[in-house]
Amino acid sequence: MTDRQTPPLRLGIAGLGTVGGGVVAIVQQHAALLAARSGRRIEITAVSARNRSRDRGVDLSSYAWEDDPVALARRPDVDMLIEVMGGEDGPAKAAIETAIAEGKHVVTANKALMAVHGQAMAEGAEAAGVALRYEAGVAGGIPVIKALGEGLAANGVTRVMGVMNGTCNYILTEMEKTGADYADVLEDAQRLGYAEADPSFDVGGIDAAHKLALLAALGFGTRVDFKGVVIEGIERITLADIRHASDMGFRIKLLGVAQMTENGLEQRMTPCLVPAASPIGQLDGVTNAVQLEGDMVGDVFLQGPGAGAGPTASAIMADVVDVARGLSVPAFGLPAAQLAEAPRAGDRSSAAFYLRLSLKDRPGALAKVAAALGEEGVSIHRMRQYDHDGECAPVLIVTHEAPRGAIDGAMGRIGAMEESLAAPVALRIEEV
Ligand code: HSE
Predict the structure, then answer these.
(1) How far is the CA of 196 from the centre of ligand 1 (A)?
(2) Confidence (pTM)
(3) Atom number in ligand 1 closest to CA 288
(4) Can you name the CATH fold of 350-429?
(5) What is residue 4's predicted lDDT score, i.e. its pLDDT?
(6) What burial class does residue 417 get, using C-beta atoms within 10 Å of its C-beta: 0-12 exposed, 13-18 middle, 19+ buried?
């Protein structure tokens, strides 16, 4: 029951785009539910956005308006800043820093800011004794920060893995289903409100890498290290790759993997092949999934909508309810000063690889390819040659497990062959 003596928790919302509008809608539609679950009323007192006159499909008339999010963060009638503007620096950062300095809690969906400045922000929040929460920043509506930071707190984490960009997964699965053009499908994703303001953050893997860096810090108790993530986007994945991978029993996903290796923390966000029949292989559309692996629990698989107004606002409001209830959890699972600085391991770990080669179809070409692989110590597991496209014969090879360095060496040799018509492509096959 709501405690009538407890004052309401008053929110100031900075940013009224897709997610901000979703937050307003939940606060308005679920006022009674939120109050019952929090033990106090949750109210919006003020909002801030760039464009005051835009119709956002929600009634904002009873909220004070601030043009400047920093002024919003300073308002005495705001107890908590909800930052849903985005951007790793600029007004979002200034507003969060102001809120913390003023002793106010912060809930943000801003993975870029947290991935780049998370350590400083966590230190600041701890010193001020306020909450800093970012569930909505990682995998949209999936409560993965809570699962990893709280639900699996008794585990040594061995690996964290996920498909965490709805736009990329939407593009890859729509292209596969319909044979549609990359650019058309990206336009759909933008229209549906999945894509970042700058969609190159999506297709270039940066958005998903921000999320992976946050999960890695939380899972391994390390300082968040976005620059340590090896990133490759989906731009060079062709419809032919998608179809060839499918013929060989795989699907291509923009997959993030973080694991502690003997060389340090490996963080990579790259297109990978995964078995089509695996749970990650079966993800369609904007759906995200995260696999958390702990030494006590084994594998935990979470799946759900990774983008859009409802799912992202759902995650924001879950954080709000936690803070309203008085729950206090360090941003990265440990006091910020105890987070370790992990060496960067790059993407050196061994794996099986899918190779796509574009060869002139002439005697001895395949023998040269096989020799290049053999000389680098890479063993061929499966191979297919497809029909010619003009002079070019696409050749696909699945290797046995090999070190990344050996694959790179072989790719260099094959790319330099006079029979090579285009740079060879190597994609990791991840065991999931
Ligand atoms: N642009 C992101 C995505 C939205 O496509 O998943 C949430 O970060």
Answers:
(1) 6
(2) 0.94
(3) 6
(4) Alpha-Beta Plaits (3.30.70)
(5) 54
(6) middle
Amino acid at 139: A
The domain made up of 9-108 has a fold known as: Rossmann fold (3.40.50)
Q: Which of 254, 309, 269 is nearest to 136 (CA)?
A: 309
Separation of 268 CA from ligand 1 center, angstroms?
Answer: 18
Please state, in angstroms and rounded to a whole number, the distance separating the CA atoms of residues 211 and 260. 17
Q: Other C-beta atoms within 10 Å of 178: how many?
A: 10
Active-site residue flag, 111: no
Ligand 1 test: best mutation among 207, 290, 303, most atoms within 8 Å of CB? 207
Atom of ligand 1 nearest to the CA of 308: 4
In 3D, which of 251, 229, 258, 232 has the Cα closest to residue 161? 258
Pocket of ligand 1 (CB under 6 A): 140, 165-167, 194-196, 202, 207, 306-307
Q: Which atom of ligand 1 is nearest to the CA of 199?
A: 1
Distance 379 CA to ligand 1 centre (A): 38
Mean pLDDT calculated for residue range 83-106: 97
Cα of 1 from ligand 1 centre, angstroms: 36
In percent, how much of the chain has pLDDT > 70? 99
Intrachain domains 148-305 and 350-429 with the same fold: no
pLDDT tens-digit series, residues 351-401: 999 999 999 988 999 999 999 999 999 999 999 988 877 788 899 999 999
How is domain 148-305 classified at the architecture level of CATH?
A: 2-Layer Sandwich (3.30)
Domains of the chain by residue range: 9-108, 148-305, 350-429
Options 104, 111, 211, 253, the catalytic residue? 211
**94, 113 in Cβ contact below 8 A?**
no
